[in-house]
Amino acid sequence: MSELKGYYLPNSLKSIEKEMEFSEKKVNDYTLLIPSINQDNIKEIVRGLKENRKKYLTDMPFSEIARAYGEVSRTWSDNKYEKKKIALELLPVLTNLSPELIEFFQFRSIYKIDEKTINFLSTLSLPPEVFKSFAPIEGANTFVRAYAGFRDKIALKKISQYDKEIELVTYITPSNVPGFIESLGIFIASIVKASGLIKTPSVQPLFAPLYAESVAEKSKEIGETIAVVPWAGGDQSIEDVIFRNSNVVSVVSSTQTAMSVKGRIDELNKEGISIKGCYHGGKFGVELIAKEMANRDVAGLAAIDGIGYEGYMCGSPAFGFFVEEGGELSPIEFAEALADEM
Prior knowledge:
Elements: E1 2-5, E2 21-27, E3 30-36, H1 39-57, H2 62-76, H3 82-95, H4 99-111, H5 115-122, E4 135-136, E5 143-144, H6 150-160, E6 168-172, H7 180-191, E7 195-199, H8 207-218, H9 220-223, E8 226-229, H10 236-245, E9 248-252, H11 255-270, E10 276-280, E11 287-289, H12 296-307, E12 321-323, H13 331-341
Parallel strand pairs: 1-3, 6-7, 6-9, 7-8, 9-10, 11-12
Antiparallel strand pairs: 2-3, 4-5
Helix pairs in contact: 1-10, 2-5, 2-8, 3-8, 12-13
């Protein structure tokens, strides 16, 4: 059987592997090696990531970061790329999602992480009037409208004035959206010139290590600022070390997990440790279709929303489709077209 790593450590931290214990997970003709992380391991990993950030990423031009991720994007768009073939073979086994669904929703997002996207995000600035009306985004054919309460606006202002270096971003990723959040977490950490620590879901610890290896193939320096490791959620001996050393902790998981992490982050912030928490728990979706849009083309687009990750995508309309009468298709005809598309 061929061995695959259910984790990723930069070359400078490979010695930590000798201190780890491993379990094995059999998937088709592969053996996934899963490390058991302890407190000493995570202390070394966090310290090494911060040191590597200063050494390799702090002064790296955005053009170099854009080049590396652009090459990763083009590599994953190649169906002959070995890591993509492995992912499309094994992720359906691990997640019960079809290869077609994973390709469409997951890999299509990776293809968009390119030079143009990175250069756009590196200069993105939201105008103040975005909270009052739809405002144009310079350089994009897009209008944005933001909604927030008074307290959220104050929090946003504080964040915009945050002048401390972001050294470490930690992402706790979900099991029901295989790969997309992991790749997004690695990418976002790099464009804010922070090291990225990714917690893999126990259901599929496969994709994030493959993606991190791809990044390291295109830029050894960026690869030195990424770590992908599993740990038992709620293990305070490990998470206390991680959270205290993170500038940002992002959670995309169940509401229970998100609220549990939020409670821990709030406690640490009360101690004077400055951590920005980003929490994305369980969501529900509803799709409202105006009569002007009640046609077969829109029914096809609505079907894509409905099948997103078998209905587990946060934007999937789990509460149903509501169609206004008086359009090209009646609500019943729209439902029939929707069924045909599915």
